[in-house]
Amino acid sequence: MNADLVIRNGSVVTTSDIWPCCDIAILNGTIVAVGINIPVNKGVREIEAGGAYVTPGGVDSHVHLSLYEASADALKTVPTDGGIPNMDDYTGDTYETGTRSAVAGGTTTVITFASQYRGDDSLIPVIEEYHKLAAGSSYCDYAFHVIISNPSQMVLEQDLKTMVENYGITSIKVYMTYNAMALKDYHILDLLSAARELGILTMVHAENADAVHWMIERLEAKGLTTPYYHGTSRPPIVEAEATYRAITLGQLTDAPILLVHVSTKSSAELIRNAQTNLLPVYAETCPQFLLLLDSMDKEGFEGAKYVCSPPIRESVTDQNSLWQGINNGTFSTIASDHAPVKFYHPKGKLRGLANKDPAQRNFQYIPKGLPGVETRLPVLFSEGVVAGRITPQRFVEVTSTGPARLFGLKRKGTIAPGFDADITIWHPQETFQSFKLTNEMLHHAIDYTPFEGFEFKNWPRYTIIRGKVVFQEGEVVGEIGYGQFIKREKHLRTSTL
Ligand code: DUC
Ligand code: ZN
Ligand code: ZN
Ligand code: ZN
């Protein structure tokens, strides 16, 4: 048959099967055949994948790139409250460095955030701004969610519709915490009800803003302000209360919601219970909650590297519950929540803080978020599949097929004829030499990784996007600007299992 690339003899994984010794033929960026001993014309490039898993390219449905670059003017009018750093301090990943890092870790599509700030009445200029930042600068395909901080009349009555119909953006995110972004329940209800009509999926950051604020003030009064106390200020019940409230608001409006970055057993149980009652409640967790435990020392500043919200938890019970939730279908997606800033700032600051002024070392001024777009797939493959906690099929479900379906990426997320040829080829497991990760091996623009020293038991060998090899044997070989913006379909209600 006619093809321009054929992958030979891999163990091809879908959500339901593993087909051993299977070929994939690709033509013009699309998968045209999957089968045994596919005959192709002479001279077609062949990649030998014998002994290796071949999985659909990773879809990372929660990535922040150029987070604080857009809407810079609007942002200056918003006081920093721990949710967002000062503009001068931004040292995160751009579309160039973030998507380069994504492909080096086997991810072929990222869904990133366009952020509306309080001062913006409309969403449209915000979306246009992010289009400018991403266009021509991405190594992998990308789509946008929109963060809504000002549900103005214009947003509710016009912009959400325009966003879906003209821009192909079919998900929003709302915050229940951070003064600069948090919405009152009243406004979340307004948004959920509009979202329901338009086929938009609403992502919710569930932490109780007042409870966190109250905790922070009490910790500050006692002088307990090192990074360690970030976790103390946001205990599991703060997440659980907001999770339950978000489920209630969704139920009241009959609107689908996705609880993002779920970090605890208590929240996972509330979500599971809602799903058992057939509510359209979906959930995401992240590798950092599955694999890291809070072991910060109480005095030092090194812990700032691990400050994210919700915080890294202290209990293995939480981790076990999250792994269980992956296996029983509570979680539809495992995303990185890549939201990094450098530890050492070029201007001599540490994670957004004035180095010389100990008063400014207060945890609440540390921007919240970790790097993880490149490590997401390999760390889950190592600690999930190779370690025997999840099957290869379940790995594919939560890292690719699940997020593609949830977010309306209709040509992404599986290996079947007619789908985009987005494919990750792993190393043959038998011969792979496990190694300890160091940050120098990664392709992001960040000066640390929370997975430093972790033992990796496999790593993507090839990343292929729309039939083009973009990462091969440790090297990014794709071109900046190859990544395309992907318009998405409306959210369709699906069962989680
Ligand atoms: N929430 C996110 O989703 N990402 C980074 C910070 C945050 O609070
Ligand atoms: Zn969040
Ligand atoms: Zn106060
Ligand atoms: Zn995030």
From TrEMBL:
Domain Amidohydrolase-related: 53-470
EC class name: hydrolase
Posttranslational mods: Carbamylation allows a single lysine to coordinate two divalent metal cations.
Keyword Methyltransferase found: no
InterPro entries attached to this UniProt entry: Amidohydro-rel (IPR006680), Hydantoinase/dihydroPyrase (IPR011778), Metal-dep_hydrolase_composite (IPR011059), Metal_Hydrolase (IPR032466), Metallo-dep_Hydrolases_sf (IPR050378)
Protein family per UniProt: Belongs to the metallo-dependent hydrolases superfamily. Hydantoinase/dihydropyrimidinase family.
The protein's name: dihydropyrimidinase
Organism: Coleophoma crateriformis
